[in-house]
Amino acid sequence: MEKKPIPVEATKVRDDGRQRAKGAARVAFARRGPATRLADLEQAGALRVLFPRPEPGTPPCAVLANIGGGVTGGDRLDVEIVWGEGAEASVTTQAAEKTYRAVSDPAVIANRLTVAAGAVAHWLPQETILFDGARLERSFDAELADDAELLACDSFVFGRSARGERVERGRVFDRWRVRRGGRLVFADALELDGAVADRLDRPAVAAGGLATATLLLVSQAAEARLSGLREAFASGSSEAGASVFDGCLVARLVARDAAALRRDVAAAIGVLSGRPPPRVFAF
Fold first, then answer.
1. Which domain holds residue 118?
2. The model's pTM
3. pLDDT of res. 2
4. Eight-class DSSP state of 173
5. Which of 124, 197, 212, 237 has the fewest C-beta atoms under 10 angstroms from its C-beta?
6. Can you give the pLDDT at residue 65?
7. 225, part of any domain
8. Main subcellular localization, coarse class (predicted)?
9. What is the number of domains present in the chain?
10. What is residue 17's predicted lDDT score, i.e. its pLDDT?
11. Low-confidence ranges of the chain (pLDDT < 50)
């Protein structure tokens, strides 16, 4: 894979005088004997990468930190993670990503993953919290080798219910594309634009739920893990379901609040990965 330098400015001042943040990070893991090691690291602008000491017998974990404290209109974050052949590692975030009200332009977040042969990749960011008037465009692109494994989780919280917040209006566009062996195996998109709260109240959308999550497992063992996941959902408090097709297990969850969603997502991660979520992924 050709490596290019990260072209990023720490900040950019627009013609209207508003300052906007930009950040980029690139992390590469490689197999070194029996263990996975950090092979490459670049970080710029508002993004930093932390590496807490892993628990004995567990693979390394990269923790993405946005030192800007959240994103708003005109901000941009670019993340690229590479798992080399046979590598196993997790990636999460230091905290929930807050997306604040935007005046005009959306915040843009682009995540790109490459998972080589025999590698096991866990992409487990904490939830994205949307504030009223937020505008967000986010993409997730993953390229997997035929026998690579990917567990990915993504969740949204539409307002902090404990503080009486509600996202009445805004826009979120979230696009997923996952390819295995060069073939598209999973494509998904979520778009809510305008009266967000009204749409979430609809029975066929979220039936009033304020927190949603999607989990994707691309693995040769996907079908074998389906029954255990459904058992975990049966004892949870979220409205949840899961199905398997073409080596992909996809699960959706909707909950009344973030705390309920976190508990159920944590249980699902445990079933699908065989271990608890990263330590910083506090529940």
1. 81-273
2. 0.91
3. 54
4. E
5. 237
6. 96
7. yes
8. cytoplasm
9. 1
10. 55
11. 1, 8, 10-11, 13, 283
Asked whether residue 135 is domain-assigned, the answer is yes
- Residue tagged 């445990």 (tokens): 270
The vertex-206 CA angle with 149 and 209, nearest 5°, equals 100
For 123, the token pair is: 């992409």
pLDDT score, position 58: 87
Is 116 part of any domain? yes
Q: Are the beta carbons of 242 and 249 closer than 8 angstroms?
A: yes
